[in-house]
Write a structure and sequence with these properties.
heterodimer, A: 464 residues, alpha/beta, Amidase signature (AS) enzymes, 11-stranded mixed sheet, B: 10-stranded mixed sheet, 3-stranded antiparallel sheet, 17 strands, 20% strand
């Protein structure tokens, strides 16, 4: 299958004439026909004819030229329906495009569809969607993770070469871990958020989901950089990530924050994640156990600030301009709006929102301290294997607790790379995340790439 | 019952920047085709993000400096959350905890703050339907909040006119109350017998200067009447908002006021904190023009009357014309020019580039040989034709004869030919006007009437 190839192989093949962009697009649509009804990864699919027309006309100007990709359905795409997986935007066709979408189109990549997700990013299982839950291709009785279940499944099942996700508290990493894909939560400000429908503005980050670290590096090169339409985008220059993947592991110290490996972490997952450190150690890296005692506080901080911001961000969907009213929000979204509204209200602001921001500052220090003792932190992504449908939905609190390892990075802003690191005995994927200092994507990608040279987990794909 | 009104004013001024506060759209919205100056940002479309307009922030600081404010070096925007159909994002980006400018003063009125925010769209009600126009959505707005130091409707008017004048001097807004580019919301209560305070009332929808005064007076009377009936005093929960009905000339209850925290203000996460260094603030201060108070003082030092000084300073453009003409401290000359500017030149529209100070100097140096009506005529004509007034005076034969020898000859003839008028003069010296008129006539109008009179008086005494 052509789509098993890496981006650089595909790019080379297109240039050598071994195959064409039309072949790639056709293969994507063949896979969509086979797998989308099983997995429900897409909300809106661009017609095959339209995508083929673009493939026929494509000029090979960049490594991404002619490659079919998927966008999480939270990115504004001119003329293509954009729903954020909510009935509230069921009929919304944006008159403008997100910056990353423009950049990808400029690079010659071909959009094939808008991928399913938890509505507004509210969730970790892609069940909180008005377009039907996303199913895990490794076991379709289980969730694919979220909120970006659709983009991850699209890549895992080869319905797209790569996808763009959006991570507010794990939305790229969580589904990557549960679907055996590679995903990068970038440093806050590394990639423009313009045109990304906001969940929690100060946590939201935009990043790639792909089959390998190397692929993520190539995509990141294209989408990263300062944007005059996003005041929070960073002017820090964008390294040529994909040509900086070599790394002498003997110069790298990997921190193991013990609090991330305590009770509640599935032993099978714990073993697989710690195996990453021993594999890297064998290859020359130094391993160091460290402590992050504030770890327990990350959930309350996240679940006060994110709902506060979301209560404000979602206030505009008032039924006046988008046709469908607020009664179309799901229970989970209403719950987050109510929590946020409460936390910002008179008399509660100091006790909740403000306090959470103060603890957030402590967290920034906590990460700074941890990352002064080592170069990167190795952490699990999810405490459990992907649950069966309804298990998380029926228990909202358990639903929030499942995010415990992925919500502490966003309030801090640090980047985190999610990589496949093994399988359970029932053949369900396990992922690990490598967290680095602000704007250390170069190191994370190089380290992840070295790991993927040592292992072949990331090359495994589900047998549907 | 002793009544002391306590009045504070919130004044909104719309900045006339080229583009809007958080996007690149044209900020002009007056008489524009609805919804033509809009984009994803000011329409609040999903995913759009605000990027602050640097010029607007600088202008806000400029106004704060002109009002004697302290400038906060590090500030941030906040979201003020409330629902209204013409509020695109369902929140307004504003400033609460850290406005650009704090603690200013305008004469006797303390200024609490001058902060930056954005305007809302406009709801237009037609035939029972509400239409939304977002051309105004996101237009930069500066809010100037006074302390409750104003005591009467007249004081409120003076304060507003001062604000308007300063804003116009700075060239940052038209500050036109009728057009809505300057809006005022008074908050009023009364102190009764130096002891009790009536509940606070904020008045909205006042659309003219007289409206502000009448609304304040109405509210003073209403609250006094209300208090004498119910004796209810101010507490933290009974502030209300009343609308002003210009047709009925009365206020009406709009809503029980929401406390500010119910807007669920929180720092705007889409915009990083904004830092203006001391150096940057000083650079803005350096762009401040000479303000009206300074101009008035300067003109008084020049020897001009209070009346003239105020009149010349009213408008910065007008006073800059005066400043262009006056280059020294000669107070006679200053008075001469002031009279021309406040007089004949006030009747036409003047462009400063067409003002030639030399023409004024020439007129001044020859003023003794020109009649006052000739001077008025020449100043206008020389401006209009851009020709030296002395050339015009010569062409039109407007120079007066002040040569006493020449005038004596004419006067002698006049005396010889008008014995009756001479006899009248002997009886009543006030009747000399007729003889002066005859001299003027014989000279073909070129005689200087003052000199002619003096010559006649001399000759008639000698008789």
């Amino acid at each position: 299958m052509l789509l098993d190839k890496s981006i650089s192989e595909l790019s080379a093949g297109l240039r050598s004439g071994e195959f064409t962009s039309v072949d790639l697009v056709n293969e994507c649509y063949d896979n969509i026909e086979k797998y989308n009804s099983l997995t429900n990864a897409f909300i809106t699919i661009v017609t095959r004819e339209e995508a083929l027309k673009k493939a026929q006309d494509v000029k090979l100007t960049s490594p991404l030229s002619g490659l079919p990709f998927a966008l999480k359905d939270c990115f504004a795409t001119t003329g293509v329906r954009t729903t954020a997986a909510s009935k509230v935007l069921e009929n919304f066709i944006p008159p403008y495009s997100a910056t990353i979408y423009k950049k990808l189109l400029d690079a010659g990549a071909i959009l094939i569809g808008k991928a399913n997700m938890d509505a507004w990013g509210h969730g970790g299982s892609s069940e909180n969607t008005d377009f039907g839950p996303v199913k895990n291709p490794w076991d379709i009785t289980r969730v694919a993770g979220g909120s970006g279940g659709g983009p991850a499944v699209a890549v895992a099942t080869r319905m797209a070469v790569f996808a763009i996700g959006e991570d507010t508290g794990g939305s790229i990493r969580n589904p990557a871990g549960w679907t055996n894909t590679t995903g990068l939560k970038v440093t806050y400000g590394r990639v423009s958020r313009y045109g990304a429908i906001a969940y929690a503005s100060s946590f939201d980050t935009v990043g790639p989901v792909a089959k390998s670290v190397e692929d993520c590096a190539i995509v990141l090169e294209t989408i990263a950089g300062v944007d005059k339409y996003d005041a929070t985008s960073s002017p820090v220059s964008v390294p040529a990530y994909s040509s900086l993947l070599n790394l002498d592991l003997s110069n790298v110290t990997i921190g193991i924050p013990k609090e991330f490996y305590g009770d509640g972490l599935d032993p099978e997952i714990k073993e697989a994640v710690l195996k990453v450190s021993t594999d890297l150690q064998t290859a020359g890296a130094t391993i160091k156990e460290i402590s992050m005692p504030l770890f327990d506080l990350c959930l309350p901080v996240y679940y006060l600030i994110a709902p506060s911001e979301t209560s404000s961000n979602l206030a505009r969907y008032d039924g006046v301009r988008y046709g469908t009213g607020r009664d179309n929000f799901t229970d989970e979204t209403i719950r987050r709006i109510l929590i946020g509204t409460y936390a910002l209200s008179a008399g509660y602001y100091d006790a909740y929102y403000k306090k959470a921001q103060q603890v957030r500052t402590l967290f920034i220090e906590e990460y700074k301290k941890a990352l002064s003792q080592c170069d990167v932190l190795l952490q699990p992504i999810m405490p459990n294997i992907p649950p069966k449908f309804g298990e998380l939905l029926s228990d909202p609190l358990q639903n929030l607790l499942a995010d415990i390892y992925t919500v502490s990075q966003n309030p801090v802003g640090v980047p985190s790379l999610a990589i496949p690191c093994g399988f359970t005995k029932n053949n369900l994927p396990i992922g690990a995340q490598i967290v680095g200092k602000m704007f250390s994507e170069e190191l994370l990608l190089a380290l992840g790439h070295q790991y993927q040279k040592l292992t072949d987990y990331h090359t495994q794909k589900p047998q549907l | 019952m002793k009544i002391t009104p306590i009045i504070g004013l919130e004044v909104h001024v719309e900045l006339k920047t080229k583009s809007k506060m958080f996007c690149g759209c044209d900020a002009e919205h007056f008489h524009t085709e609805p919804n033509t100056h809009t984009c994803p940002v000011c329409l609040g479309l999903p995913g759009a993000l605000p990027v602050p307009n640097k010029k607007a922030c600088e202008w806000c600081i400029k106004l704060g400096l002109a009002l004697g404010c302290t400038i906060n070096e590090e500030t941030f925007f906040e979201r003020k959350n409330y629902f209204y159909p013409d509020l695109a994002k369902s929140y307004q980006i504003s400033q609460l905890q850290k406005p650009f400018c704090i603690n200013g003063k305008l004469e006797d009125v303390r200024i609490n703050r001058v902060h930056q925010e954005e305007d809302t769209g406009k709801s237009v009600h037609v035939n029972g339907e509400t239409l939304l126009d977002f051309n105004r959505s996101g237009v930069p707005l500066v809010e100037i909040v006074s302390e409750p130091d104003i005591k009467s409707p007249e004081d409120a008017k003076t304060y507003l006119l001062k604000i308007q004048q300063i804003v116009r001097y700075l060239g940052i807004s038209d500050a036109d109350i009728e057009k809505g580019s300057m809006r005022c919301e008074p908050t009023i209560n009364l102190c009764i017998d130096d002891e009790f305070y009536t509940p606070l009332v904020e008045i909205k929808n006042v659309a003219s200067l007289t409206g502000v005064m009448t609304a304040i007076q109405y509210e003073i009377d209403r609250q006094a009447e209300q208090y004498s009936q119910d004796k209810i005093t101010k507490n933290s929960t009974n502030k209300t908002t009343r609308g002003w009905d210009a047709d009925k000339q009365q206020t009406f209850l709009q809503r029980e006021k929401e406390g500010s925290a119910d807007y669920r203000y929180f720092p705007e996460p889409d915009i990083p904190p904004i830092i203006f260094s001391k150096e940057q603030v000083e650079a803005i201060r350096a762009t401040l023009p000479e303000m009206p108070e300074a101009k008035i003082a300067k003109y008084k030092t020049l020897g001009l009357s209070d009346y003239d000084s105020n009149l010349l300073s009213e408008d910065s453009y007008f006073s800059s014309i005066f400043d262009k003409i006056i280059t020294d401290s000669d107070s006679v000359y200053a008075k001469f020019v002031a009279n021309l500017l406040i007089g004949p030149l006030k009747t036409i529209e003047i462009t400063i580039d067409k003002i030639n100070p030399e023409y004024f100097k020439n007129l001044f140096d020859n003023k003794d040989q020109l009649s006052s009506s000739a001077i008025k005529q020449l100043v206008l004509e020389s401006y209009d034709k851009q020709v030296d007034p002395l050339i015009l005076a010569k062409q039109q034969n407007l120079f007066q004869v002040s040569d006493t020898n020449k005038l004596e000859e004419i006067a002698k003839d006049v005396i010889a030919n008008n014995p009756k008028a001479v006899a009248d003069y002997q009886k009543n010296p006030m009747s000399i006007g007729f003889l002066v008129g005859q001299v003027m006539k014989s000279s073909g109008g070129s005689a200087n009437p003052q000199v002619a009179k003096e010559v006649l008086e001399k000759l008639l005494v000698l008789n």
